[in-house]
## 1
Amino acid sequence: MAVMTDRYDVAVIGLGAMGSATLSELARRGRRAIGFDRFTPPHAFGSSHGETRIIREAYFEHPLYVPLVQRAYALWAALERRSGRLLLAPTGGLMIGAADTSLVAGALRSARTHGLAHDVLTAEEIRRAYPAMRIPDAMIGVREPRAGVLFPERGIDTFLRLAIEDGADVRVDARVTSWTADARGVTIDAVMGDAASGGGERMRCEADQIVLSCGPWMKSMAPDLGLPLSVERTVLHWFEPRARADRFQSGRFPIFLLEDDRGHVLYGVPEMPGVGVGADVGAGVKVALHHHGEQTTGDAVRREVSAEEVREIAELAPAYFPDLAGGWRRAAVCMYTNMPDGHFLIDRHPRHDAVWIVSPCSGHGFKFAPVIGELVADLVSGRPAPFDLAPFRLDRGTASR
């Protein structure tokens, strides 16, 4: 076994959205940090892929997220300035449903609590403003101007590039097999390279603290805690409009979430031509069902998309967007790692002060990556967090919604 002689201030396990952002922020602050990922990020095996992600301010899940997302907007902008890369494209956003749905009522609650710019549209007003949409008369829409699109693969790549530039040690294709904590800190054992076939170099290193940000593999990385996390498979779909494709382009078509009378939430992202996204964002209108997948694990997830799954979305999407009928083109699988109450999990290990459990996202976390990275860097540095993190503690019980 190769033993690394250098000791690190912090080791970060898992370099998806939260881990890469945390590593980048630690390195920016001059902390000696190392990050491990079992794959080579950005990759398509976890939760932080799919070309686009939504960012929105009138946060229907709970008003407590609004200050966090506002800080995230500022940090994404700072990251763009430093990297010279486009990471966030404004599109405006529309939350659609009956007035009493959790989506519409929650968005209005956040908008009114925090005095956010927004307006409320009738179904007829939605149809006039966005002619690609066919919204039933019983629905209304909450429109917010600051919503937009993030590019997750590019975001993670940017976090890691800057982390390396600032001195972080990044180990990819490196599976952490175990960690142990004692009064001196944490010892990490990992296998580099082809662990599945018994090959690969084994290594060990030490750190004062460790951040576990493993997403779908979190439970196996901290098995002693019995974390109440569940992993949910979710399928992303892309459509090519069969007519009037210009109506689906950014500038004419917003990001949207739509809750129907069964409580199902459909969400989507417009076509993004002309905004400099490049070859890493493919063509198509992205549409998916939110929290509609089967339970799985990071290792056992079913990667194939069934004909039934395609049929379901190919029937549902055109009910609201008629020009998508017959336009399904491709799909991808990713995973949500969920807490029972749908909130985040950010806390110190109850038995090891040197160990931090960082498990957003419950299916809505990518947008927060830079602010979570900043918060975790504060926590491991012993600084008070500028936000109330009590709702994200492991022992919180069921948070009020």
## 2
Amino acid sequence: MKEKLGVVNCLYPTLTVLVGATVRGKPNFTTVSDVGIMTNRSPYPISLGMTKVNHTNHGIKENKTFSVNIPSEDLVVETDYCGMVSGKETDKSTLFEVFYGELENVPMIGECLINMEIRLVRILDFTTHDVFVGEIVQTYCDNKILSGGKVDLGKLRPLLFDRHGNKYRKIGEEIAECYKVGKVLKKK
């Protein structure tokens, strides 16, 4: 028997990322778990839902650029901290080795094994949140997490955010190969 839960978003857990932007001339980072993949076709738009009071929003709006940095399990303390304190009062860039790529004013985190430079395309205005939609301009990846030229999630060990349990989780084991396991149900 199923129980009604009301209006509950059960799409969690989701990937936890650190979003970077230059705010008033300084690099700033914040923790975000409301990240969306909008299509799997180039130019690869993504979305971020961020509360309007977030300090990082000012830098994204001002510069029309931002970064998405994917922390591993090893950065759980720093990642959590970046979501707890505001860049208005705390210089969170001191936690990390900050580097820049092709886009001006897009700080990225050296300790994160994957970094993406994003160009802002549009902002969707909701009552409490800004949803930033951007296109990936460049992706940087540490070669130690690549297998056959592709990202190996087992080696990356990304953080997942579980809103229902209010916990960080990790990725489990592989269970099947996509676009293969379902072939057993195809009629011949």
